[in-house]
Amino acid sequence: MEATWIIIGIVVIVILFLWVAYNSLVTLKIRVDEAWSDITVQLKRRLDLIPNLVETVKGYAKHEQGVFEKVTEARSSVMNAKDVKSTAAAENQFEGALKSLFAVTEAYPDLKANQSYVELQQELVDTEDKIQASRRFYNGGVRELNTKIQKFPSNVIANMFGFKNRDFYELDDSEQKIAEKPVDVKF
After folding, report:
1. 19 phi and psi angles, rounded to 5 deg
2. Which residue blocks in the chain are alpha helix, DSSP H?
């Protein structure tokens, strides 16, 4: 009789362990999905601001058509990105195009004094800060999820239920070098 209680106790402990481990993996997965959603919301906000910014600059810099086309193409790439890696690559391209746009504005002092431009610029800076915070939150969630998926014994449960490692949101090497040296934009 005593052996039966020991076996029942072991089975209950195993079931409790499976339940807790599975639920913690689900919680981490949902947290990463939520963080990704935060990133996409902020990227959409930024993408919505860009046409207004481009139109404001166009009024002053009509002969800079190539810059406007680059920004438009890069914006389209971000909108069409489907996963973390393609979004990060499109974002890198988009940030480069924005730097070109801001460089154009340096040649137009009246533009820099334009109230609409200043407000759009402030909105964009605020959005960029939110994007960076969202990226950090996402990468933190990915780190926790990937660690849990790879650690024993939760890796057994992760494999049983098909949990997969997620990709970090990273800059590519060329953009990381650029990011280390911020662009000097004066308003």
Report:
1. -65, -50
2. 2-58, 65-80, 84-105, 109-113, 115-150, 154-160, 173-180
Return the residue matching tokens 């990704």.
36
Enter the DSSP assignment of 61: -
Residue 74: CA count within 13 A, CB half-sphere: 26
Q: Is residue 168 part of a domain?
A: yes
CA-atom Rg of the chain in angstroms: 24
Give the number of other CB atoms < 10 A from CB of residue 172.
13
Q: How many domains does the chain have?
A: 1
Residue 182, preceding bond cis, omega within 30 degrees? no
CB-side neighbour CA atoms (13 Å) of 19: 6
Name residue, tokens 């990011």: 179
User: Which one-letter amino acid corresponds to residue 123?
Assistant: E
Expressed as residue numbers, the domain containing 169 is 24-44+60-180
Tens digits of residue pLDDT in 76-109: 888 888 888 888 888 888 888 888 877 777 777 7
Give 24-45 pLDDT, tens digit per residue: 999 999 999 999 999 989 988 8
Residue 116's CATH number: 1.20.1440.20
The 8-class DSSP code of residue 181 comes to S
d(CA 150, CA 158): 8
Q: Residue 137: exposed, middle, or buried by beta-carbon count in 10 A (0-12, 13-18, 19+)? A: middle
